[in-house]
Amino acid sequence: MSWICKYCGNDTSNIDYDYLVGTDHLTCTLNNIKVKTKLKITNPEKINTLNMCLDHSTISITYCGHNHSVNDMQIPYSFYEFEAHKDYNSQTTIFQIRTDIDSMGNVEIDTYKGKKMNVSQIPVGIVKDRAALINKMIELVNEQIV
């Protein structure tokens, strides 16, 4: 059995059992635990809006639901899904706002336009502020995905 902490690489053979998790330092283990907090959007259906933009275009945003999926590494995640249309054209923009909040207080937002996808991070504060979230979605609808 190796008495090496997998987090810091130091010897743990001289450490009292009360300060170990297996053969790892208790403090190293606690510092490396990812505390996952989940985003909850209250009344997401209230984000359903028809917005008049400064260029006189209109963007409609509709809440589609709270869904679950798995990523490429087969790790499950959940997200809120919204759909946006600009000027009632056939171009649809789909937003998937993930519920996992990272240590910096951001959530991932996946934006799909046609067959193109963009992944970005936005602060939880924007998601919690209905007007700020709508403005962010309008900005992303107008943005070109490369």
Number of domains: 2
How confident overall, as mean pLDDT?
A: 86
- Radius of gyration in whole Å, from Cα? 21 Å
The biggest sheet amounts to: 6 strands, antiparallel
Number of DSSP strand runs: 10
* Percent of residues in helices: 10-25%
SS content category: alpha+beta
Give the low-confidence spans. Answer: none
* Share in β-strands: 35-45%
The end-to-end distance, rounded to whole angstroms, is 51 Å
Any key phrases for this structure?
146 residues, alpha+beta, 2 domains, 6-stranded antiparallel beta sheet, two-stranded antiparallel ribbon
Characterise the protein shown here.
The protein is built from three helices and ten strands; from the N terminus they run ββαββββββββαα. It is an alpha+beta fold and 146 residues long. The chain folds into two domains: 1-33, no CATH class; 37-142, no CATH class. The strands form three sheets. It has a six-stranded antiparallel sheet. A two-stranded antiparallel ribbon has the order 1-2. The N and C termini lie far apart (51 Å). The mean pLDDT is 86.
Quickly describe the structure.
This protein is α+β, with helices and mostly antiparallel strands and 146 residues long.
Question: What's the structural blueprint in terms of helices and strands?
Answer:
Layout: E1 20-21, E2 24-25, H1 26-32, E3 37-38, E4 49-52, E5 58-70, E6 76-86, E7 92-98, E8 100-101, E9 106-113, E10 116-123, H2 124-128, H3 130-142
Antiparallel strand pairs: 1-2, 3-8, 4-5, 5-6, 6-7, 7-9, 9-10
